[in-house]
Amino acid sequence: MEIEIATIGGYEEVGRQMTAVRAGDDVVVFDMGLNLSKVLIHDNVETERMHSLDLIDMGAIPDDRVMSDLEGDVKAIVPTHGHLDHIGAISKLAHRYDAPIVASPFTIELVKQQIKGEEKFGVENDLQKMSAGETMQIGERNELEFVNVTHSIIDAINPVLHTPEGSIVYGLDKRMDHTPVIGDPIDMKRFREIAREDNGVLCYIEDCTNAGRKGRTPSESVARRHLKDVMYSIEDYDGGIVATTFSSHIARVSSLVEFADDIGRQPVLLGRSMEKYSGTAERLDFVDFPDDLGMYGHRKSVDRTFKRIMNEGKENFLPIVTGHQGEPRAMLTRMGRGETPYELEDGDKVLFSARVIPEPTNEGQRYQSEKLLGMQGARIYDDIHVSGHLREEGHYEMIDTLQPQHIIPAHQDMKGFAPYVDLAENMGYNLGRDLHVTRNGNLITLVEE
Ligand SMILES: [Zn+2]
């Protein structure tokens, strides 16, 4: 059976991930993501109303025109998890393919919400839920399986396409977490089994983020302990404490909520995306928040809540807000600019349970946000966080476990691929032979007929 890989997006950048695998006559698409920084750099861009081709020209969504060179039918569109760089282009591209969108329950729910917000295209693809451990027949001879992995968002999976020539493991994005705060540990046992099956692993496509960092990425339970230490240490502070994190990071949000309670403060989630992700996770029973946890997204209800906090005393509350990267319109940045009814005073604490995404725009915005908060007297607790991506030893362990015939590094630019290529070459792979560094819009033939 002929096997081809189309590397469509995310091979020159972090963002707008999209890869297609053709096995015989069947094609499976993995991820359809957005490159948010290409959108945010323009002021007032409303992607909801934009056409796909304009977004492709901006570099915001994958240029899927290479798909017409693949001689097969798309049988499934498979986003691996709910981050925007993996699902954000579905509402712009999926309608071009007569195929269902197949994803884990939390991811499907986020895809559904995204499609609902789309104003330009009618996206009518079937939405099919499939959980980790389950499989789905693809055409007559291929099978799709979801393997449970751990990442900075719940319900993440790595899809595996089993073909008569061996398995294709699509490895974006994960960290090797054996003690996650929500959900099951990464299913290394299943990866070991897949490696031992007939024909083994034909190809491993992997996210190279953090490949240049030594050692292993700590578990989410380490970030949780770090957070607990910080929050318990300020238990006696009788002024304002404000926290921010990735709103899609449900495990972290739930730790914040729990420790707020522990130190005698009522947690409140503020900001549109805080309400969106946490509300969805609670509706789907991934998390059990206290009954009195307030979640407010709309500007008016947020401001009303801030007024209530000021009236009843800042020392009784812990607002958990958006703005961990210093995004200009996010809640924490507005608080720093003094645009909300919440007044920061000398000695008030601001907890960043996030790392600055190392990119000039984020670094600049975050710097500005911290300065503004500091000018009002806030004390900053930075980097209470662990990454959602594998470091060098995690990458080593995955390659060692899967023993793939071919490796395709993804989810980075050329610079980001370099440390991963070094590692793979040290493990016996050869650039150009079985280790394929590529660009957006290429086709790689792994098995010829
Ligand atoms: Zn991700």
From TrEMBL:
A single GO BP: RNA catabolic process
Domain of life the protein comes from: Archaea
Pfam families for the chain: Lactamase_B, RNase_J_b_CASP
Keyword Hydrolase on entry: yes
Keyword list, A-Z: Cytoplasm, Exonuclease, Hydrolase, Metal-binding, Nuclease, RNA-binding, Zinc
Subcellular location: Cytoplasm
One term of GO molecular function: zinc ion binding
Cofactor: Zn(2+)
Binding site for Zn(2+) 2: D85, H86, D173, H411
CDD domains tied to this protein: RNaseJ_MBL-fold (cd07714)
EC number annotated for this UniProt entry: 3.1.-.-
GO cellular component entries: cytoplasm
Residues involved in substrate binding: H385, V386, S387, G388, H389
Enzyme class of the recorded protein, top EC level: hydrolase
Positions of the Metallo-beta-lactamase domain: 15-226
Principal location listed in the UniProt entry: cytoplasm
Cofactor: binding details: Binds 2 Zn(2+) ions per subunit. It is not clear if Zn(2+) or Mg(2+) is physiologically important.
Subunit structure: Homodimer.
Record function comment: An RNase that has 5'-3' exonuclease activity. May be involved in RNA degradation.
Family: Belongs to the metallo-beta-lactamase superfamily. RNA-metabolizing metallo-beta-lactamase-like family. Archaeal RNase J subfamily.
Protein name per its UniProtKB record: Ribonuclease J
Organism the protein comes from: Halorientalis pallida
Gene encoding the protein: rnj
